[in-house]
């Protein structure tokens, strides 16, 4: 039997967090090897384990996978979280690419120079409420189902809930006009508490 996937990244959310969420949602146990020092990262690079000399890197099924999206695609496919056919997959890709655009904006916020921070936060708030969240609220409203695609859990739902957690951290009031998204986050919170995560 293959061992647990081993995740190599810093002890922070960053680009690895969606991978952690996806594995956890699929019920897959994993190990983490945190990169604590520049020397740890150099060692991984010098050992030839990082194709583009970057992390995240995930050891899974005998591979040393890099590139966040490639890793997410593999896990989602393996654990049946990627739609039932190519059209569902196309929809999931469109949704998750939109989520990634907003996610990247939020992820980069700590790197923003202090004098530009206020403007950046205002831009994130504007895009969150006018561009991104309305899309997902509208999808849920249009078909009245619990999940975004195909009436069953997919990576799109998992990545959306992760994103909504970040949105709440920026400003909880950003969710005010999106009742169905609020329900999704609360349902996830309850199931996480029930699982004692
Ligand atoms: N496209 C890559 C980007 C990876 C990336 O930028 N990784 C950063 C950490 S978040 C890194 O490894 N930086 C160290 C370096 O480039 O030397 C992915 O999505 O995995």
Automatic annotation (TrEMBL):
Example GO molecular function: glutathione transferase activity
Gene Ontology process terms (BP): glutathione metabolic process; xenobiotic metabolic process
Keyword match NAD: no
EC number annotated for this UniProt entry: 2.5.1.18
Gene3D superfamilies: 1.20.1050.10, Glutaredoxin (3.40.30.10)
Matching SUPFAM superfamilies: GST C-terminal domain-like, Thioredoxin-like
EC main group: transferase
Annotated catalysed reactions: RX + glutathione = an S-substituted glutathione + a halide anion + H(+)
Keywords for this protein: Transferase
GO CC terms: cytosol; extracellular exosome
Signal peptide: none
InterPro entries: Glutathione-S-Trfase_C-like, Glutathione-S-Trfase_C_sf, Glutathione_S-Trfase, Glutathione_S-Trfase_N, GST_alpha, GST_C, GST_superfamily, Thioredoxin-like_sf
Domain GST N-terminal: 3-83
Pfam families, per database record: GST_C, GST_N
Domain called GST C-terminal: residue spans: 85-197
Similarity comment text for this entry: Belongs to the GST superfamily. Alpha family.
Name this protein carries in UniProt: Glutathione S-transferase
Organism per entry: Suricata suricatta (Meerkat)
């Amino acid at each position: 039997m293959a061992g647990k996937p081993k995740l190599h990244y810093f002890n922070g959310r960053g680009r690895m967090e969606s991978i952690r969420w996806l594995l956890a949602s699929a019920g897959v146990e994993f190990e983490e090897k945190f990169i604590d020092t520049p020397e740890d990262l150099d060692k991984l690079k010098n050992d030839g384990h990082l194709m583009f000399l970057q992390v995240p890197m995930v050891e899974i099924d005998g591979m040393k996978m890099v590139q966040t999206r490639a890793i997410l695609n593999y896990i989602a496919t393996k654990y049946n979280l990627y739609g039932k056919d190519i059209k569902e997959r196309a929809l999931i890709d469109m949704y998750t690419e939109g989520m990634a655009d907003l996610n990247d904006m939020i992820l980069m916020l700590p790197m923003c120079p202090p004098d530009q921070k206020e403007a950046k936060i205002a831009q994130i708030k504007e895009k969150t409420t006018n561009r991104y969240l309305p899309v997902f609220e509208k999808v849920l409203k249009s078909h009245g189902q619990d999940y975004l695609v195909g009436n069953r859990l997919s990576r799109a739902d998992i990545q959306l809930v992760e994103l909504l957690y970040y949105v709440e951290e920026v400003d909880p009031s950003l969710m005010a006009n999106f009742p169905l998204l609020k329900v999704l986050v609360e349902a996830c919170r309850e199931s996480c508490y029930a699982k004692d995560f």
